[in-house]
Design brief:
The structure is a homotrimer of 442-residue chains.
Chain A: H1 9-30, H2 40-52, E1 57-62, E2 66-67, E3 70-71, E4 75-84, E5 90-93, E6 108-113, H3 114-118, E7 121-122, E8 144-145, H4 148-152, E9 158-168, E10 172-180, E11 187-193, H5 200-218, E12 225-231, H6 235-243, H7 245-250, E13 251-257, E14 266-269, H8 277-289, E15 293-296, H9 305-308, E16 317-321, H10 343-362, E17 365-368, H11 394-405, E18 407-411, H12 412-419, H13 423-435, E19 439-441
Helix pairs in contact in A: 1-5, 1-10, 5-10, 8-10, 8-12, 11-13
């Protein structure tokens, strides 16, 4: 059921193509940057995002700042890293792929026996051509990630190792934030982690969808205020939560956007509340989308919804992705690259995110102003003329369902659930009934 | 599980045969009458019903009377209608079948080109031998319904058209009403639409079942007061609701009876409340019946339950039918005739409606007067003598379930649901326990 | 998932073997005794149990004592019983098998025609080699149970009959009771019927499991007080309930143990409350056990849970068995013998009963003391070091689930239900979090 576009089909397809290419272009530009929890990679990334969303605020939070039960870590930056053989050749080279370095590796320089080096190597015997992505944020360590094939070629007795990184206790954690005010102060939170280096689906895809969604929302009238938070995983949302108690109190709905560029079907993971409005909206939008999807129950493992849904906050924040983490072969490897994420997949994800926001915007509770018997729709031009046939059009049913359930205790999403009718159709029907003086939003 | 009859099986079969024939005879007598929303066809129908139910009240409500959001329409009557060819032969003739005229056709007389006439013709290309049933109650129009084959034979350039109808603004809407007082003022509403012309299943079948059910109820002691309303679809129930606010407040359960003569299995459509006592009673009676059936959720489309279940009233009124409207090929065509409705089908529907009323009558909440441990049934003659075997008869289980759940918060229908035992069996067991001083109705 | 044992696997297997043999030895010792509702067989049985549980109290309640709606019956004892043919040979002999006598047979002595005798014989035509078990506790009668083959050999015209029994109105009903005090006065009730004669599974198996369970519980620290009641079916629990109103008020959970020695899978029958803590604990322990099992809804037929769950008491008492009564061929026949009940089956049942008690002991409601965001587990040594991989160990998930759901409204069993994780694992994780100062029991 088409929902938001008023363009004729060929023009819409052309626009989608253009969007997809524009989205992928942004993703390709961000891909080579070596992001981490902190550091210049995040700053560079957010600077590029500001070209798309000029109002984006970039916050710097000093290392050592307490944040809930945590503390902002030292800032990590890396200039170069390599392992050289006796001949002085780089047999592992950070410049070739930034996944080669264990994230947050401490600086190291020296000769190591192969046995010593092996304890600092990470590879995937089952996927011997791929470089894994590994981190050691909170436990000081150094290491290299490499393909298993490359690892097996390391046959010399000693290697020279260099990791030219810095861990700066007087550095900062960087995150981006953009607020689009709406008619109401009530907020919809959109959150993406931006701490992963050259991984296209995880999570440049979520970031790119969020950026284009905010551009689109900026062009529309908004009932809700929308807030985008782009920060490093876990510590980013913890820092944001610790610094924004008032905004936390205004969040009515929220969505973590991640893994939105791959080829798989969609997955919505429910918030801890399981039946919050965000959960119903997401399930309905997916139901109406015609795409393959799955709704999964809450799990206290995953992305930043873990923090938003911790019991003290218990915010209604779900998580929208395509195939979830760990369930596709490319996950956290060098195969999560620019060809794994396709423009059409990004556009489809963007449309779904737009429909999700549209469903929240549309979700009002109406009161039927003529609740005794059915109002006579015919004389208001809302009913077909010749009766007795079996047309039973969705439009007629949308009118009847809205009138029947608008007793002040069913909102539009609940009407969509009970009737099986699309949210967008019901929204149009509700507006027609409102215009006819038969419904009134509470 | 047999419930209400105490006759031995052959006598019961004979009585059923006689009932079926009597029911079908009434249906056959009513079939040729041209009923509509208003007019003499309804009056003639109700006059025949009064031969069966002499206490039936016939109400006349003047055209133009406001009723909730509606207004009683002008009274429509028709004497004749035809389309003649150049040779003066009737090529469409109301006297051959009263479905030939679009219901509520405005009067018309004159010559029309074939193209002009075509805009006023209704046929069914997919069922080329059947005349469809069509109405235009609230949008002035005229028209003829005919078989597609007949339509294809209209090859002349011009036809003479006559519809000798009247739309009388000073006429009336006619409906029938019968109240059978019971021990309580609380009411069970039974409602049938009686506005369709020569259609046997829709809804002479419902009317005939209701008439014989009221005859049967009149012969029995009644806990509830039963009210039958026979009126035109939609406007009839709206008029009744608008004129009877006090009776509306006394309705505890209600059932729309329709499409009860065809060969299909039974369908119970839940009231808007979904879990009202009427919904549980109907589901249990169907479960216990041994027939094919389906329970469907509430839908704000269908028959007069749409009005009874509008949110302002929200009455617990379900709808009992066999195959629902639009789901059998004969629906709203000339094939819905006297051979489509068979006596045995009418009798089976009547039995089910009787069992439904019996379930409502039987549904009390009991208090176990010996609730600490099981009472010793043996010394009260309610338990088998030699133990250790595996008889586990339903009767014993009925006693145990009633004793166990009669804590004042389970009524008999809930015991039937939880135990899987029949309503009639539990009713007999409850009376045995009441006689033994172990149960007391609240 | 191993729960309670800390022994290495081979030692555990050896201990299990020893337990099974010890359990079966007790069962074999009790098997030949002719127990009934009352009488010396019960006394002898309880005297042997006291060798295992020296603190067991043996109560004698005089015949004629009122108990709820019942009265303690006359005490029944039997010395001998036989049917002799004309040659004076015992063709049915109580000394060969105590099932041969209808329980509670009144004394009889004399010659009977075969037709007269036949009215007092019970056999199983479908299982012609087995002796059935039959009773006539509350309706005076006498009779013999015998294999159908044996019955068919009775071809003489007259037989001499002797049942040398006594029904003593000044006798008593005997039951056993053992209380193991815990930290709290709140009680867990364990109940077994001990009224059946030589039937091994029904219910010496339950009794033996209960005896060994109480021995095990006696060796452990206990949060709850545990009470074991060993009495005759129905009247035993009724007598106990009538005499212990204060203890009744302290029962928080209860389990009837029966039919625990056969080869079938486990069956848990829910209490009348259906979702009581006992019901959740039993379902989870079965789910975690890796064995075949079934959870069945409440039914007011079965064992002493009928009395505990009568509506006046409505205690949260379920019933744990293997294949339920009446669903295995050996039920209530001479085939329910010492070879039907195997040591390994008894041990498996004992383990399950122990895990059930452990689940109740473990079930606390915790409060997360660091509920805003996730607490940083890493610095408390509760989290793995190198991230990015997909280990997702159950231990980590147990920590996360407990932290996430410990908002004061989920107890540990509910966390086990929602997470799918084992009760024992969650219990260990909860203690680790408590030690780390992150959780506190309410």
């Amino acid at each position: 059921m088409p929902t938001s576009t008023a363009l004729p089909a060929p023009a819409a397809a052309e626009a989608a193509l253009a969007s997809g290419e524009a989205m992928h272009a942004l993703l390709a530009r961000l891909f080579p940057i070596c992001r981490s929890l902190t550091g210049n990679g995040v700053r560079e990334t957010l600077a590029i995002v500001r070209e798309y969303l000029p109002e984006l605020q970039v916050h710097e939070v000093p290392s050592g700042t307490p944040a809930l039960d945590w503390m902002v870590p030292a800032e990590w930056n890396i200039r170069d890293a390599w392992v050289k053989n006796a001949a002085g050749e780089r047999v592992i080279d950070f410049r070739a792929h930034n996944l080669h370095v264990l994230q947050y590796s401490t600086p190291v320089r020296g000769w190591f026996s192969r046995a010593e080096l092996e304890e600092h190597l990470f590879s995937l015997p089952q996927q011997p051509d791929l470089i894994p992505y590994r981190t050691s944020y909170y436990q000081p360590n150094w290491g290299f990630c490499l393909s298993h094939r490359q690892r097996q070629q390391l046959q010399e007795e000693h290697y020279e190792v260099c990791i030219d990184s810095t861990l700066d206790e007087s550095g900062a954690l960087t995150y981006g934030e953009l607020v689009l005010p709406g008619a109401s102060e009530e907020e919809v939170l959109l959150s993406c982690h931006c701490c992963h280096p050259s991984l296209a689906n995880d999570n440049l895809s979520g970031l790119v969808v969020a950026v284009f969604l905010m551009q689109e929302l900026a062009r529309q009238p908004r009932r809700y205020t929308y807030r985008l938070v782009l920060g490093p995983g876990t510590i980013g949302s913890i820092v944001w939560l610790s610094r924004n108690p008032e905004a936390v109190g205004r969040i009515r709905h929220g969505l973590v956007l991640t893994l939105l560029g791959g080829p798989g079907g969609f997955t919505y993971k429910q918030s801890r509340r399981a039946t919050a409005e965000v959960d119903r909206a997401a399930a309905l939008v997916l139901r109406d989308s015609g795409t393959t999807y799955e709704v999964r129950p809450w799990l206290p493992y995953g992305y930043d919804e873990r923090q938003y849904c911790s019991p003290g906050f218990n915010l209604p924040v779900g998580c929208l992705s395509r195939t979830p983490f760990g369930e596709f072969a490319e996950y956290h490897t060098s195969a999560d690259n620019l060809s794994f994420v396709q423009p059409a997949q990004l556009v489809e994800s963007l449309r779904l995110a737009e429909d999700f926001c549209a469903a929240l915007e549309a979700n009002r509770t109406y009161q039927n102003l003529s609740p005794y018997g059915e109002p006579q729709l015919g004389r208001r031009g809302l009913y077909k003329g010749v009766g007795g046939g079996q047309e039973g059009a969705d439009w007629q049913m949308a009118l009847l369902w809205l009138l029947n359930l608008s007793d002040g205790s069913h909102n539009l999403l609940q009407v969509a659930e009970q009737s099986g009718l699309g949210v967008a159709l019901l929204h149009r029907a509700a507006r027609a009934l409102e215009t006819a003086g038969l419904l009134q939003p509470l």
